[in-house]
Design a protein that fits this description.
Elements (H helix, E strand, L loop, with lengths): L6 H27 L5 H27 L4 H19 L9 H17 L12 H35 L13 H29 L9 H23 L4 H33 L1
Helix pairs in contact: 1-2, 1-4, 2-3, 3-4, 3-5, 5-6, 5-8, 6-7, 7-8
Length: 273
């Protein structure tokens, strides 16, 4: 559907993007100064950005443009990641992830609002399908946060081994705490992914049909890798870097299964027609 957003939706999307970038700027200043006093202010700016983002997505859906197109699903995923990060901000050191997350969220809300939709509008989804879609998006969001945290742990570990812990690296949480957060995010994402797969098996018809089989198989393979990761964590038989590598492979399978197919079907194939 190629209709342009109304003025209110467009304004909210632009406001959300500006607030996201403002929160990132404040967080960078906060880290550089080595202070934590502005964390509450950063959280408030981030909450305002997420609110504007959420309302823009809601208004788009209420305007009869509800779809699960590539851009809008990506926008919902980044919205979910932002909400989860903000809720967790006061109990876990997730504030450093905002530096990477919020610029991507700003880009996603702008593209989802102003770019032409890549999928056909849908009628109201049954409750069972809605629960499956919601669990899938949330699991994807949590596991994406685990990937970002894993990359942050890798960079921090490499700098420490090279005795190059100057600048922002010195302001990050201890490596042990950062590694523990990576495993917590991976475990939570695995649990929600299990729920998503379970609701899919119950409520989605022909889950192994031709149009869904690649997504189902790749997601199942990813689930198996996450299960191995979590099992090895409790057995304490893996180094954190090995777990991060497996996490990246598993998440790559999920991205390939969902966004990969959407990229081909909704964006690339229409260019050849």
């Amino acid at each position: 559907m190629d209709s342009a957003p109304n003025l209110l939706t467009a304004g909210l999307a632009i406001l959300a993007a500006l607030l996201y970038l403002t929160a990132v700027w404040r967080q960078l200043l906060n880290l550089e100064a080595g202070e934590q006093r502005q964390r509450r202010q950063i959280a408030l700016v981030g909450a305002a950005a997420l609110l504007a983002h959420g309302v823009a997505a809601y208004l788009t859906a209420q305007a009869g443009e509800s779809s699960l197109g590539f851009y809008r699903v990506a926008s919902l995923m980044f919205l979910s990641m932002g909400v989860i990060s903000l809720i967790s901000l006061f109990i876990r050191p997730l504030h450093t992830l905002l530096i990477v997350l919020f610029p991507l969220a700003a880009l996603s809300v702008l593209v989802a609002t102003f770019a032409p939709d890549t999928s056909r509008p849908m009628s109201d989804l049954p409750a069972g399908i809605l629960s499956h879609v919601s669990a899938s998006i949330i699991s994807f969001a949590v596991l994406a946060l685990a990937v970002l945290q894993g990359l942050l742990v890798t960079a921090q570990s490499r700098r420490l081994r090279q005795h190059r812990s100057q600048g922002v690296i010195r302001k990050l949480p201890p490596l042990e705490a950062a590694s523990a957060l990576f495993f917590e995010l991976s475990g939570a994402g695995f649990l929600i992914l299990t729920i998503a797969i379970g609701t899919g098996l119950v409520f989605v018809e022909d889950l192994f049909g031709q149009h869904l089989v690649h997504k189902t198989v790749l997601t199942m393979l990813a689930w198996c890798l996450y299960a191995i990761l979590i099992a090895q964590y409790f057995r304490r038989g893996w180094r954190v870097q090995s777990a991060i590598t497996v996490n990246l492979i598993a998440f790559g399978l999920m991205v390939l299964g969902f966004f990969g197919s959407k990229l081909v079907l909704e964006l690339l194939l229409p260019l050849t027609q």
